[in-house]
């Protein structure tokens, strides 16, 4: 009986309808009601997403919880949803982070609070839709539609340069996406289908594959973001309200990585192979160069934004290093390690970056500054907070025992199989990550009390402890015992590699 | 030959409309001023009844009548239904605006109805004479409508400009028709088609010259670059309800004109005219989208946006397949629906002595009225081509057909321009949501207007979530 419930549709539409309800029932005149409705909706959605995990068939690489209905029958487009081991953890991450975001913005947002909450709920539904869509046009609709709430979130509730930042964010991502749209239409012209699984089987020539790969890359690289199209991210992050930064870093960037896994690798395997050097190169630049850029940032949010780019470089490195491993050793298992490491890195970064941005948000709410120089000695006035931030800072620099370590370790291990120097450069991140994160931590938290503002700080309240604990748990859990996540990923990654290993020429 | 009753039947909606316009004309003359609403109500009732007739007469096979000069086919019927629907909305939106400015006169609705009749004749034209007759009936009514606001210099200037340039275009078109007649000796589209041959076997210099003049004439009427100069001035200068009317229904008639002349008449010369359309399309996309960025007047900006949208509409024609024509038709219908909403919003926010047609008038709308800000957001994002709104599917359709005929390069060019286009649409969203309002007055429009504009905006969203039905209608209009 439970199997007949369209679970994925519920997870997509419940928050969207909840968002409308927030506006209608709560509205700006009745913000407390709006908050309660928003929190209830987000928790309900999170609970709805749990059966995806508990009832997930670990032995299968097939799509599960599949829903398929005709949508635009003239062009054979279906409302087709389903999850595998790759998308399921990302969906749970989305529903989880949304709950955290709603709690974190509880009393912080004063202006147009109901619209703020509604935008996040709508955004949640659209993001889940993008992760769950199995029809490329359905995916595209969700993928593009989620720009609108994000555009408003940054633009309405962001910092001083919010308008510039949000328009830059919007135009960058839109440009990448329209090229992807042309690629999808081309694939339809060749194979007569928009279903993602039909596209996996479509034979394509090398030139076609390279062009399609580049078109997909334009969409996904902007979202990841990869060097050199990352420039929107620091702007958007810095200007976005805390909740917006959290969603951007924790989930939106993952959409880019997810797109590479779901579209680029299996649809254009030969081009991915051919251009792996390029992708590895860009990833290494992101890891090393952006790591150095992060060190010198005077603004905490900007520092974490650059750290996100660097960490996402690991995710893309893991995906494309698989080709080198496969070429050099022929080992499917070795290649699988790279891809799995990349996916673990994405999930883990979702929790850690969310936590880091929330930590900055906690301080910003008190002193209204993101500049490192405005702080110093925060540990003296906020000891509990300092302890939490310590944990997240260490996780961000990849300390073993935290989730940040697992993904990076797997990717570096994989890289060693491919090439020592790639592994060496990637390994630099452990040094750089520690340098930029801990140095910032030192300047902000330790030392004597820097100024009167810091001297007057109050430690975290109950609400803030709730969301910090909520994020600390998965960071430690995935760090100490990542096996459950790896078990989920394994069959789908193997299945992916089998698709990738077959040439389409 | 003698005409039987059956010969009149295919033109029954047009005949009914003509009879009603004449009747309303007489009634209006004898109506005391305080009963002016009756003219409006009769006009709306006429539109509804004509729509019913068009739907009842929806043909399976094309029917020719009046010595083959008038055709009733599915494409025509679908277009007519939308023309009537949009005219209904345009009349509706105009009511309060005209009242507030003391322009609520019978002439507006009578001229509007004559324009509708012209559009219907144009859509059904199957010979150069009927096509030209319909076009001129439409154009002459529109000239007068633009000039309706007699005391406004802007409106008079717009009317003058429109009249002179559009008459020039009519002349060019007529000259093209005369060349085609000279080359083939016929005014009938089917005979012209067979004279040219399926693959353009009968191609010659005079024919080509005629084709060029016809394309230029049509491009003038549609406002494609480089024949677009009149569009921004007209859109800005005309009273908003007239702009709304000109910006919606006549676009559908213009599409029909394109189809009748180029596809039905000169399908054999597709290779020649599609090259011309490529140039017109790229120029329209470039100029429309780029110049729109610099505008501070919303009506003028939407004028440039129209030019760009005509460029997109051409893309489906360039594909040159039946599916491509269907995509173009889908595009033009969707565009007209969006434009109607856009100008409707301007009318909604305006009041006596305040036009609300500057971009700045939309500043901070979200704080004044979140609901209308949301509707405007839907309309602007839809025009920009963002899913899940209807405008995305329109672009998606024409791009799909372009890619299907291996014109990927043109598709890429057009999406790059759509990026530029998006910039000025999100500027409106920016003003509404990110800025503070100048005054905090709430929107004061009558309830019926609110309901209509909400329906209009939500239709863009709802049809965007389920676009299949409207697409199927457009495709079935071309099915053989």
Main attributes of the structure:
heterodimer; A: 505 residues; mainly alpha; two-stranded antiparallel sheet; B: 480 residues; two-stranded antiparallel ribbon; 2 strands
Unreliable stretches of chain B (pLDDT < 50, length at least 5) are none
User: Which value, in Å, is the CA radius of gyration of chain B?
Assistant: 21 Å
Task: Tell me the structural class of chain B.
Answer: mainly alpha
- The percentage of residues in β strands of chain B lies in under 5%
User: Order of strands side by side in the largest beta sheet of chain B?
Assistant: 1-2
Biggest chain-to-chain interface with counts: A-B, 36 and 34 residues
Helix share of residues of chain A? over 70%
Total of domains of chain B: 1
Q: Given the C-alpha coordinates, what overall shape of chain B results?
A: globular
Number of distinct helices of chain B: 21
Give the SSE layout.
The complex is a heterodimer of chains A (505) and B (480).
Chain A: H1 7-26, H2 31-54, E1 64-72, E2 77-83, H3 87-104, H4 113-132, H5 136-145, H6 147-157, H7 162-191, H8 196-200, H9 206-223, H10 232-239, H11 242-267, H12 269-274, H13 276-295, H14 300-329, H15 332-367, H16 378-381, H17 383-396, H18 403-418, H19 420-445, H20 452-455, H21 462-480, H22 483-501
Antiparallel strand pairs in A: 1-2
Helix pairs in contact in A: 1-2, 1-4, 2-3, 2-4, 3-4, 3-11, 3-15, 3-21, 4-5, 4-6, 4-11, 5-7, 6-7, 7-9, 7-10, 9-11, 10-11, 10-14, 11-14, 11-15, 11-22, 13-14, 13-19, 14-15, 14-18, 14-19, 15-17, 15-18, 15-21, 15-22, 17-19, 17-21, 18-19, 18-21
Chain B: H1 5-8, H2 12-30, H3 37-56, E1 63-65, E2 70-72, H4 74-100, H5 106-124, H6 128-146, H7 153-184, H8 189-196, H9 205-222, H10 230-237, H11 240-247, H12 249-265, H13 270-293, H14 298-319, H15 322-349, H16 365-368, H17 370-384, H18 390-404, H19 408-434, H20 447-465, H21 468-478
Antiparallel strand pairs in B: 1-2
Helix pairs in contact in B: 2-3, 2-5, 3-4, 3-5, 4-5, 4-11, 4-12, 4-15, 4-21, 5-6, 5-12, 6-7, 7-9, 7-10, 8-12, 9-12, 9-13, 10-11, 10-14, 11-15, 12-15, 13-14, 13-19, 14-15, 14-18, 14-19, 15-17, 15-18, 15-20, 15-21, 17-19, 17-20, 18-19, 18-20
């Amino acid at each position: 009986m439970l199997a007949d419930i369209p679970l994925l549709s519920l997870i997509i539409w419940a928050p969207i309808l909840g968002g409308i309800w927030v506006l209608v029932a709560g509205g700006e005149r009745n913000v407390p009601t709006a908050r309660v409705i928003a929190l209830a909706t987000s928790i309900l959605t999170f609970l709805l997403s749990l059966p995806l995990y508990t009832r997930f068939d670990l032995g299968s690489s097939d799509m599960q919880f599949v829903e398929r209905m005709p949508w635009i029958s003239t062009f054979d487009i279906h409302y087709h949803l389903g999850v595998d081991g790759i998308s399921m953890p990302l969906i749970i991450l989305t529903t989880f982070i949304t709950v955290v975001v709603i709690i974190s913005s509880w009393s912080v947002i004063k202006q147009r609070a109901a619209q703020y909450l509604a935008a996040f709920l709508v955004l949640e539904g659209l993001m889940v839709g993008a992760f769950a869509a199995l029809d490329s046009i359905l995916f595209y609709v969700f993928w593009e539609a989620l720009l609108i709430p994000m555009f408003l979130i940054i633009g309405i509730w962001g910092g001083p340069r919010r308008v510039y930042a949000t328009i830059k964010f919007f135009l960058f991502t839109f440009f990448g996406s329209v090229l992807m749209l042309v690629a999808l239409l081309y694939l339809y012209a060749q194979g007569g289908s928009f279903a993602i699984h039909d596209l996996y089987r479509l034979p394509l020539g090398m030139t076609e594959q390279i062009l399609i790969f580049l078109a997909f890359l334009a969409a996904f690289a902007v979202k990841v973001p990869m060097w050199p199209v990352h420039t929107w991210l620091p702007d958007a992050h810095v200007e976005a309200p805390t909740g917006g930064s959290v969603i951007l870093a924790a989930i939106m960037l993952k959409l880019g990585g997810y797109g590479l896994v779901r579209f680029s690798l299996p649809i254009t395997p030969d081009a991915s192979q051919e251009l792996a050097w390029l992708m590895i190169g860009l990833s290494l630049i992101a890891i090393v160069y952006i790591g150095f850029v992060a060190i010198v940032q005077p603004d905490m949010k900007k520092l974490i934004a650059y750290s996100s780019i660097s960490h996402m470089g690991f995710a893309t490195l893991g995906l494309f290093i698989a080709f080198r491993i496969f070429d050099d050793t022929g080992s499917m298992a070795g290649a699988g390690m790279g891809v799995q490491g990349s996916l673990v890195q994405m999930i883990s970064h979702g929790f850690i970056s969310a936590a880091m941005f929330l930590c900055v948000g906690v301080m910003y709410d008190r002193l209204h500054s993101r500049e490192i120089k405005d702080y110093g000695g925060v540990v003296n006035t906020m000891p509990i907070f300092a302890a939490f931030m310590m944990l997240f800072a260490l996780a961000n620099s990849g300390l073993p025992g935290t989730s940040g370590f697992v993904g990076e370790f797997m990717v570096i291990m994989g890289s060693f199989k491919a090439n020592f120097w790639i592994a060496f450069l990637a390994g630099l991140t452990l040094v750089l990550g520690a340098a930029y994160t801990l140095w910032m931590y030192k300047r902000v938290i330790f030392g004597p009390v820097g100024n009167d503002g810091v001297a007057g700080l109050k430690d975290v309240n109950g609400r803030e402890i709730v969301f910090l604990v909520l994020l600390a748990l998965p960071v430690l859990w995935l760090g100490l015992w990542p096996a459950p996540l790896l078990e989920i990923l394994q069959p789908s990654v193997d299945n992916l590699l089998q698709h990738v290993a077959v040439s389409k020429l | 030959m003698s005409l039987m009753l059956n010969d009149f039947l295919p033109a029954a909606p047009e005949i009914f409309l003509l009879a009603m316009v004449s009747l309303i004309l007489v009634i209006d003359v004898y109506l005391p001023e305080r009963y002016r609403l009756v003219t409006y109500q009769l006009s709306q009732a006429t539109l509804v009844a004509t729509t019913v007739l068009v739907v009842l007469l929806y043909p399976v096979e094309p029917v020719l009548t009046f010595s083959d000069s008038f055709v009733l086919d599915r494409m025509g019927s679908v277009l007519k239904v939308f023309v009537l629907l949009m005219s209904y909305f345009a009349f509706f939106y105009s009511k309060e605006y005209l009242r507030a400015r003391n322009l609520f006169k019978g002439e507006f609705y009578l001229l509007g109805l004559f324009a509708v009749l012209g559009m219907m004749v144009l859509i059904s034209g199957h010979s150069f004479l009927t096509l030209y007759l319909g076009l001129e009936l439409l154009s002459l009514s529109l000239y007068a409508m633009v000039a309706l606001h007699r005391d406004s210099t802007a409106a008079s200037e717009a009317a003058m400009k429109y009249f002179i340039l559009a008459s020039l275009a009519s002349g060019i078109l007529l000259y093209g028709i005369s060349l085609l007649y000279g080359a083939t000796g016929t005014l009938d589209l089917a005979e012209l088609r067979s004279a040219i041959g399926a693959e353009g076997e009968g191609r010659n210099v005079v024919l080509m010259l005629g084709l060029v003049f016809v394309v230029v004439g049509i491009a003038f009427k549609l406002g494609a670059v480089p024949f677009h100069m009149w569009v921004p001035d007209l859109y800005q200068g005309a009273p908003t309800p007239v702009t709304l009317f000109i910006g919606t229904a006549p676009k559908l008639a213009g599409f029909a004109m394109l189809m009748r002349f180029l596809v039905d008449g000169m399908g054999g010369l597709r290779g020649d005219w599609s090259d011309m359309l490529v140039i017109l399309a790229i120029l329209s996309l470039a100029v429309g989208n780029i110049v729109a960025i610099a505008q501070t007047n919303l009506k003028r900006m939407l004028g440039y946006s129209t030019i760009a949208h005509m460029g997109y509409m051409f893309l489906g024609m360039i594909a040159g397949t039946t599916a491509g024509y269907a995509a173009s038709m889908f595009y033009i219908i969707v565009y007209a629906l969006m434009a109607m909403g856009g100008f409707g919003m301007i009318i909604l926010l305006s009041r006596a002595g305040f036009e609300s047609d500057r971009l700045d008038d939309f500043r901070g709308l979200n704080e004044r009225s979140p609901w209308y800000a949301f509707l405007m957001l839907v309309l602007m994002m839809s025009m920009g081509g963002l899913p899940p709104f209807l405008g995305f599917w329109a672009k998606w359709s024409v791009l799909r057909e372009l890619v299907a005929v291996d014109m990927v390069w043109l598709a890429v060019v057009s999406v790059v321009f759509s990026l530029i286009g998006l910039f000025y649409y999100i500027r409106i969203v920016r003003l509404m949501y990110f800025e503070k309002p100048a005054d905090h007055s709430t929107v004061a429009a009558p309830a019926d207007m609110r309901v209509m504009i909400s329906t209009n905006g939500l239709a863009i969203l709802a049809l965007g979530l389920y676009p299949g039905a409207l697409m199927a209608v457009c495709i079935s209009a071309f099915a053989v």
